[in-house]
Amino acid sequence: MAKPALWIIMLSHLLLHVLGQLPTPQNVKLTSVNFKYFVTWKAGAGSVPGTRYTVTACNLSRSNGTFIPVKKCINITTMSCDLSQTFTFFHDLYWVRVISITNTSKSNWVESNELLPLRDTILGPPIVNVTSNIQTIKITLDMPLTPHKDNDKPMTVKDIDLSLIYTVTLLDKDGKELALDKVEPDESGKGVYQFKNLKSKSTYCVTATFLSTTNKNTKASRKICATTSPQNADILWIAPLIAVLVFIAGTIICFFVVWMLKEFAHLHLTQSKLPKSLWKTQRKSQEL
Description:
This protein has 288 residues and is an alpha+beta fold. Helix content is 27%, strand content 32%. Strands 4-3-6-7 form a 4-stranded antiparallel sheet, with no helix packed on it. The chain has a 4-stranded antiparallel sheet with strand order 13-12-15-16, with no helix packed on it.
């Protein structure tokens, strides 16, 4: 069975050569990560040495279905091309086509898949930094940059997809999920979150990803692990010491208040037992 199939392939290649037609590019794929766009392909079976490739692009909303040559992707020998400066409208729908060319012949055009940047780009992973304390894991988050600029200022993925928020997941050292929460970025796109009341001297891991209302294609960050610190023995004495000092101070105050009340009561009782005439005389002498 293998020999007839081999002969068919050889005959088809011979026929293409006689007709002056090159094998078409294979697996033409249009991909995007954080709004950076690439088209990639593979050489067709039987492609001759020195084959070149040309890429044309179509913006359905702005070119009425017309494919326009991409300047940096004309007569190239590589099998990929960066289209980040070609696709500048994030809400538009794009396609590309690729053709194989030599000095004497060319192939048929091969179309890629469609791409709508806001819907199809892979978002992430977020930039993640993790620090630990005695019972706390602190996570700082930031947005990755895109190849695009706004008034010469580099744009982040948040500048393009305004709906983006972070989600952070806490795992134990075996990968079991312990907690998950959402983190709203600030105006600069940064986010901060803390997992609190954790066990001291324990290892925890964190991953982060994006959540978008327009795009389900997200990539999580790698797992970052940190170990909470052991509790300091000196710190353990602080709370009991403060409690003892408060108890002693309270006891002293109570004794002082009781002593003052007794003295006041004794003085009042002594004055009440004096003859009225003597009490008045003593009071007048005190007033003088």
